[in-house]
Amino acid sequence: MLFKSMQNIVKKNSLLWGEEVAETYHAAAARCMQENWDAIIFPLLQKHSIDYSDVVDFACGYGRNTDMLLNHARSITMVDVNEHNLDYCRNKYADHQSVSIVGCNGYTLEELSENRFSFFYTFDSVVHFPPEIVRSYLPEMHRVLKNGGYAFVHHSNYTAGGKDKDFRKNPHWRNYMSAELFADYAKGAGFNVIEQSLIDWEVVNLDCCTILQKP
Ligand SMILES: C[S@@+](CC[C@H](N)C(=O)[O-])C[C@H]1O[C@@H](n2cnc3c(N)ncnc32)[C@H](O)[C@@H]1O
Predict the structure, then answer these.
(1) pLDDT band, very low/low/confident/very high, at 15 (cuts 50, 70, 90)
(2) CATH class assigned to 36-213
(3) Verdict on whether the full-model pTM lies above 0.85
(4) 104 in ligand 1 pocket by Cβ < 6 Å?
(5) Is any atom of ligand 1 closer than 6 Å to the C-beta of 118?
(6) pLDDT, tens only, 93-127
């Protein structure tokens, strides 16, 4: 029953970011990646002793974050629910021995083994996920990380209008989530919440980047 309802949520919310947005999202976003990395992401990552040996780029899209992470990581496992995006990345990274590409069902990471990864990274994806999906993934992030491993999760901090509002009516399609709710979910999943940094995305404090650590 729960399984069916999660599948329905994924169908309705998660399959909007494939070939149909190749130009309007993926190509356009790739052009801003270096700027996002330099201004928002790397300054936060640098504050923590992150081990980049075995990295997950979660909800990877066309791989613009992997392109940045490749400068630091020994191996990268790219994960996404969208088959078109996975195929795009299989083609793009065919010559990269250090990159693997894995599909997921949209609410668990059952293809990934436990205690395997040193760093779990996700940018510009979880911001759109419904709270049920975020909550479902957090114990999975915890499961796949090694003890002491960090996670970097860029998520929404937008709650105006309430939980049942169509997220596509929200600024930048942010789904319902707050820094506090995310921290509660993460603690419930067994994480220590190390740092939360609110981010302006045209709207003041629209997003949050949370750094988690598996004890
Ligand atoms: C806005 S794109 C961002 C892609 C990439 N992170 C980037 O910055 O370019 C959102 C990505 O999340 C993926 N996605 C959406 N819902 C998902 C889910 N429930 N589980 C895993 N991936 C999901 C989409 O397929 C898409 O690749």
Answers:
(1) confident
(2) alpha beta
(3) yes
(4) yes
(5) no
(6) 999 999 999 999 999 999 999 999 999 999 999 99
Encoding tokens for residue 82? 């969208």
- Phi and psi at 88, nearest 5°, equal -60, -45
Ligand 1 contact, 63 CB (< 6 A)? no
- Cα of 13 vs centre of ligand 1, distance in Å, is 10
Does 193 sit in the ligand 1 pocket, CB within 6 Å? no
Q: Which residue's CA lies nearest to atom 3 of ligand 1?
A: 125
Domain ranges of the chain: 36-213
- Ligand 1, atom 17, lies closest to the CA of 14
Ligand 1 pocket check for 14: Cβ under 6 Å: yes
| Ligand 1 proximity of 191 Cβ (cutoff 6 Å) | no
* Segment 188-202 mean pLDDT: 97
Distance, in Å, from the CA atom of 132 to the CA atom of 176, rounded to the nearest integer, reads 10
Mean pLDDT of 69-75: 98
